[in-house]
């Protein structure tokens, strides 16, 4: 009694804590009061125990330790007084959880309180069970909760339904206990009980195939309840902004989506209702928008009619015009999910999606960019690329890399002509050259090299762009390469596709020297420029002294790569000037894939087989070219025989200039099995294109050996931020049973830093009437995929 009389009341404690001016004063007050509370607990004062625990709970909510009050909660719960039970149950919900064994001690108290007829006590016990009940408690008390589901009191029924939801989430095998009462509870007129019942049925259907089959028989009843809500309303007190009970509507729509998925009969039953909800719901308020969005998700997830799906896409299109940014973001995200299955319907809203690119909100503009890139096809590539290039010029820096990469990929896939492809790539390089992928330079040089009719046009365009700006390093590298290869066409001045441009030799050399001397030039860029100068020595008709002087200067450069090039070129000038024209001749045309490449590969294979059968004699010219590799003027006597080499001059020239030659075909990368469940198997196969070492192509192959089809199959992938991932459209969304035709999907992954690859996959599909979602990481990829 002494301890309780000297301690503060709850109101006084709150006031004193609030009046503390420093944290130290607050701690002092709390420590002093906690000492009084401990003393009171030790004395076993039953009259003031609930007051002391109430103060301790307030201290706990402030973040201070209060674990010493756990056993007092159990004593108050066992007390017959309601005032004690109220504080005891509140303390149990705050201080106890599944990690502490003490929470199991209240199981008997909760069971006794649930058996009493006092509604308030039953409500307290149900709230505590739904908040802190462990799996063991749920198994022990499931029967008592099931009895309370049909109690006359709506207050108890509502709390019992919510407790049943918690039990199903903790212990899914308890589903069979709660199936019979749900059918009766659907006839409820009490809003809280009906909303809780719909939530309970949703949980049951998501976790039990038997429950899903059972409740599909009740689809007509659910349709009737929702139609009544839409037409006549449920009750005015639950209407929000003119929308009749939107919370209940949303919950019923979610349940209908689960019941109608992969079930034709149920889907057909709800089609008319969904069309009615989609056309009659008011969109001027946010509550109506929530109902409409849930309706759209339901339409897209069930077997709905084609016209209904178009209506759903049009609703999302109207969302794009909403003034609320959250609604526009939701619409863009949903359209991005639908663009693969309903591409033509989403295409109708392309102008609105493009307008969203100009949003000041970065999250909106990023989502609009992703959707815009997904909408590009062969029929709209010119218009969409023009819009995206306009966005690239003004977009935030963190979006420039994604936008530039997306434009280049779209141009590579859907380019109508080679000239348009070159112009588009050049504009991207001029606008955001520092943000493009690492393979952009190689792709553009390969494209220009394979378009003989555009050599003169390309070199003029690149020369003009280089004269205006030398800060964009990828652009400078491509321009230097092109000027070195086709500098003679630049000086001819005969190109019908561009304006007349008179260029003097001195101007070209001065521009390349400017690139070499610029502090913005990377070592790789200087290497391109130095090689271009060397090649111009055979394409220009003037004196080469200026070129020789520039090359000799870089013979003592600190950069080892650049120094090696300069020393080799100087040696070529001094000792092998008579072969310089042959060594520096133009690179032959390069065909990008196709049947010709396959024929060439076949011919090269046959040639290799013939060379193995008959040794090729070494010609004098080949031995002379081999001597060029010995830049230190080492002796080449008869005792030293060079290794066999391709007798064609082109092979030796490539080795001399340290240019990329055709490497031997790499060893195939082994396939990898990453997933297997109930007959569904997922395998990954890998290909690294020789011309693009940073690109990895992964083919995801899904096969099904079970007796039932795998439907609505979706494979999604994610990679770390240092990688760039593009998912191609899958070959289908159904994996046939009994080892039928597999489903494939291509993943393009760019790894510019050649970092170890980690892949995260998410699979969603329906199998044997059950919805399955699997998320897993693939960390055991072969080292050949990234090294």
TrEMBL record:
Renumbered to this chain, region (Disordered) spans 594-619
* UniProt membrane topology term: Peripheral membrane protein
SMART domains this protein is in? Alpha_adaptinC2
Cell cycle: is it a keyword of this entry?
no
Which coarse location class describes where this protein primarily resides?
Answer: membrane
Keywords, A to Z, come to: Coiled coil, Cytoplasmic vesicle, Golgi apparatus, Membrane, Protein transport, Transport
**By what name is this protein known?**
AP-1 complex subunit gamma
